[in-house]
Amino acid sequence: MKVVIEYYRTRAQDSAHAVVGRETVEVHDLDGAIEMARALAGALDMPQRPDALSIVDMTGLVILSGAFDSFQCPDEEPPT
Q1: In 1-80, beta strands by DSSP E
Q2: What distance in Å separates the CA atoms of residue 34 and residue 30, rounded to the nearest whole number?
């Protein structure tokens, strides 16, 4: 399935989102999308470190959204 992975920063005072990176990828399932999101977070040249991400299908349905740190493995360094 094709999904769009959006990386964004969230402003604390009003929860506004600023997209800092976006990629469209082909994955088999949600686990593959999460794995791809983690891999791309370290590979993409983004202007700021994202603090959250969303995975959206091609119809615009949000499949998964949340704080970026919740998608990291405990032994992984967050992207810079």
Answers
A1: 2-10, 17-26, 52-57, 62-67
A2: 6
